[in-house]
Amino acid sequence: MKSIFALPRLPLSRTAMVGRASLSTAVHESSALIRVTMPPVFNAKTAQLALPPKAARRAPFTLPPPACSSGGVGLGQTMPPGYKAQVGQLNTFKLPERVTGSTGDMALGKALVDAWRRDGIIQISMNDQQRSLWQDAKAASHRFFRKPHSEKAACVDSQSYAGYIASGEEVTDGIADYSEIFTITKDLDLSEPRVRAKWPCHGPCPWPAGDDESEMKQPMTRYNENLGAEGDKLLQLAELGLGVSPGALTRYTRDGWHHTRVLRFPPRNATNGKGKEGRGIGSHTDYGLLVISAQDDVGGLFIRGPSQNEKFANWESSAAGLREDDDGWVYIPPVQGTHTVILGDMMQYLTNNFLTATPHKVGLNTRERFAFAYFHEPSFQAVIKPLDHGCGGLRSTNKNNDDDKGIHYGTHFTNMFMRNYPDRVTTKRLLAEDRYSLLARPELRTIGAAPVS
Ligand SMILES: O=C(O)CCC(=O)C(=O)O
Ligand SMILES: [Fe+2]
């Protein structure tokens, strides 16, 4: 059996960043009562006119007005106790039904890219169908997490990383997280050719026993399929906003290795004592292109916006634990009826750091919290190469793209999951059967070998 430590570039669990000037503007303690009014919804039709010249645009995040102002919701009120952070107040963008490349789409794409570059996060409104899919998926997650431990713990598969992860089982930067998770990866039965060929991470999703599909599988699958379309729509808009050719991003997501983490966080006073007090998930970046998240009304998510002073590349050395206890975190209050979208490692690599992966972490609150993180990813087989043109004219450091070997997404994903779950049966089987070596085979590297601008 090959030792995990002998594998090429396998960083330690979910990673971290370095030194950033602390925000000089007001920082709100979680106990502060803040009243704010929500900003207007972005209107794609008027976006071009509405976009102010760069210098006049608002500073990263609009800080809420003082407590005495009237109306609005106390967004900062839901911040978990014991945390100190600026409270983010995000504009809510509305996406069109279809992206056609119209002037409105181009303006919206530019506005999204600007917001990611400024804040590291965007907020988009759910349409009626998405609200209903989210309600159904959330109800299914409540049902699942209420099951006895033994029933949840049985939801494990030895070939895929899908299924249950108990509170305290996941490790970020060497410290156990309190989150309780059900991961959904591509659900492939045992007769599927990639599963038969023993490709790493490929296998069935171990739905709970007795699920007649309506309990868990259907609501989760419908939710994920809808976000699959939403993810590609966002990438099309990002292509317009970056000024790269159509397909420059979406070419990678055909048969994308999209997956979802269904999460429950215990209240801070009811943990199993296996993690670090108050901590839900430690600071990390996620692995692919986009993370589209929904959270209930409890609150717990913090992010760090892009900074010139904070350089990291999670595919080279782990960004887990990055600046976990530093200043400079922004609390993202739950806004019902919206998804938030942050960026992953592959978006950073593709755009030569023009867009950067968004470091984030989760704190435990006084009530239990439920959230969904959907990951919009390249195909497992994709070899990602930095974009040649566009992206504001930025090019990768001094590297010539033709010489760049690129990043094989399937290898990055496998490294990250082995890192997070060193003791899981899936990791043990992967190593015991030397599946890792298959990642070098040409049939696992079929998408995107040549750079596209
Ligand atoms: O709970 C959240 O809002 C985010 C979860 C997260 O960061 C993850 O699952 O990777
Ligand atoms: Fe995450």
Automatic annotation (TrEMBL):
Q: Which stretches make up the Fe2OG dioxygenase domain?
A: 256-378
Q: Name one Pfam family in it.
A: DIOX_N
Question: What superkingdom heads the lineage?
Answer: Eukaryota
Q: Which UniProt keywords apply?
A: Iron, Metal-binding, Oxidoreductase
Instruction: Fetch the Gene3D superfamilies from UniProt.
Output: B-lactam Antibiotic, Isopenicillin N Synthase, Chain (2.60.120.330)
Q: Does the keyword NAD apply?
A: no
SUPFAM superfamilies for this protein: Clavaminate synthase-like (SSF51197)
Task: List, in alphabetical order, the GO biological process terms annotated in this UniProt record.
Answer: small molecule biosynthetic process
Query: Which GO MF term does the entry hold, naming one?
Result: metal ion binding
Quote the PROSITE patterns the UniProt record gives.
FE2OG_OXY (PS51471)
Q: What InterPro entries is this protein classified in?
A: DIOX_N, IPNS-like_FE2OG_OXY, IPNS-like_sf, Iron_ascorbate_oxido_reductase, Oxoglu/Fe-dep_dioxygenase_dom
Stated family: Belongs to the iron/ascorbate-dependent oxidoreductase family.
Q: What is this protein called?
A: Fe2OG dioxygenase domain-containing protein
Ranked from the top, the taxonomy reads: Eukaryota, Fungi, Dikarya, Ascomycota, Pezizomycotina
